[in-house]
Amino acid sequence: MAPNDSAQITGETGETGGVPAGRRRAARYVVPVAVAGITAATIGLVPALASTGDPDLPKISAAELIEKIAASDTEQLSGTVKITTDLGIPSLGGLGGSAAGTFAPKGGAAGAEGGGSAAEPTGRLMELASGEHTLRVAADGPDKQRLSILDSAAEYSLIHNGDEVWAYDSASNEAYHATAPAGAAKGSEKGAKGKDQAAPKDLPATPQDFAQEALKAAGDTTSVTVDGTARIAGRDAYQLVIKPKQTGSTIGSIKVAVDSRTGTPLKFTLLPSSGGKAAIDVGFTKVDFSKPAASTFDFTPPKGAKVTEADESKAAGKDQAHKAPKDAKDLKGLGTEPNVIGEGWTTIVRLDTGGVGPAAASKDMPAQGREFMDALGDKVDGKFGSGTVFKTRLVNALMTDDGKVYVGAVTKDALVKAANAAK
Amino acid sequence: MSRVENVSTDVATAPAPVPAAGARSVSPLWTLGLLRSELVTTFRRWRTLALLGVLAAVPVLIGIAIKIETSDGGSVGGGPEGGGGPAFLTQITNNGLFLVFAALAATLPVFLPMAVGVIAGDAVAGEANAGTLRYLLVAPAGRTRLLLAKYAATLVFCLAATLAVAVSALLVGALLFPLGDVTTISGTSISFGDGLIRAVLIALIVAASLIGLAALGLFVSTLTNSGIAAMATTVGLVITVQILDTIPQLHGIHPYLFPHYWLSFADLLREPFYWDDVLKNLGLQGVYAAVFGSAAWARFTAKDISA
Q1: Do B291 and A8 touch (CB under 8 A)?
Q2: Which chain B residues touch A106 with a CB distance below 8 Å?
Q3: Which of A46, A320, B22, B211 could disulfide-link B285, Cβ–Cβ 3.0 to 4.6 Å?
Q4: Count of domains forming chain B
Q5: How is domain A62-327 classified at the CATH fold level?
């Protein structure tokens, strides 16, 4: 049947191939091509047109802007936050394999594998350290906050309401319950911030947290300027630019977009000095400063949901719950007391493993293993001897062959210099 | 093969209503008459009914499987590996309404597109294959209108197929599992009535997710005179594109692939709604419909119909 058909078709085109008719026919195909072209142009042009409209705002100094942030009393807000992180982390795997497992959990692997509850916050928040995520945040005063990570057809929610802290994972229909420390005023405040700050301390989730972390690092080593305006999530915002004055840092600049009316940080962008796209980009795509509905913070575990209490979970899933800290300890445990070299942006931490470096250790390894280690890091030589540099986009580490480790948000050259100076 | 012959006899009777309607003068009503005859032709075929039957059977299977698995009091996919399989599976035992969402999530990647691919791919090529296309064109409706009527009939099938899954799932869910307040995936609770409204909305969104594929299938259908080839190509395209959608290295093109936002219908179960991806999905389907619809028009109106 098929050959016959194709024969027919070729026959058709052959006999009706008159030039005017053929041209008329070809002309009809202009329509779909034009539709596709217009669509492509629209997709390309609309963001470009939209971004040219930087708002006109009165000039403001950096100090005034920081004050505005500090004075900001935004307690009620709800919105959608987009987090994009590109830390170049895979190459960090060279630090010992286990680190890669900590830093690259995906899809709740860390939460689900260890035998604990899939709703446990520790693992889920680590997910934010890589890739692109959409979050929803809502807050109403110090007692009520909510943070949801939107997954495909599922959602992970952290809800803090009064002294209750709930985490709910809709994919596995599991909930996690903890009681916020109540009692002293200080305690309740701490509890209130518990969700937003304690958990994401190493992994801040809202622009506020990011901005505060960044401003803390300021000093005479840092230049802070106001660089124009921007429109973020439909609001007029000032752009605060924080740049290291020292050379040798891997951090190029940090941009914080601050809402011109409320002083709330709306967007945080960290650009590495090596160029390329932002290493961390957190910003509201939608924000609303009105009071969120009270029901937003209500949570009762749904029928049939498996509820894990914080205490039980600690007992049952100790191994898993403390996986991340344990790995961090592994790194620290490599040496005795860490030494801090330098200050400000170019701070380097020196650890003494007391043992042998990877290159020396790799002598006992099979050839393939050695090649693998070499592929992960760059060989460097200097006055200190020789070693291997493991690079990410923000943090670099130098492991010397005699077992010293230098880690910092600095370039390879700065690490080598520090190693030479320490010798 | 015998199936095809079956169908062709079926199709042969189809043009009958068209000349009858042709008695009227050429008016916009023409398209309606044409659409009606297309709908009758499409939905009177055993193949169409069988497809709808298979689609309606999927929720029954899921429902019974879950009922059996949980009859000893256990939970679905309980334990550490929970969360596998299609979305919403874990919530079905608590609320039968979730069977609607789970069934739609399970059928949307394969069964629904396959059914639509069969109907859309057959629309023009099937008639050409059966030798009935030129009789259809004898009626003074014009090729553009005929194509529009065929596309509209395909879209009606998209809706019918989605509703077949949703209604069957709702019935099975109500029979086998308790109903009641619905927990959204954000963890908040809404009344059963609200949940039902969301289910209807989700069924409409799922049906609308197939608009782009229907246009693509129709375009493929105008390219060949073999109904089987058009169906196979359309279904093959669905599978290929979905495979491309899972390859991380190609993430640059993912937002432009028509199945990319299909599962976004689940965003309507969040509290509050999260419209971004749903709107992207609808926009993408519109673009596909415009591009491949006009391509089908360009091909069909310029084509020599010899069969």
Answers
A1: no
A2: none
A3: B211
A4: 1
A5: outer membrane lipoprotein receptor (LolB), chain A (2.50.20)
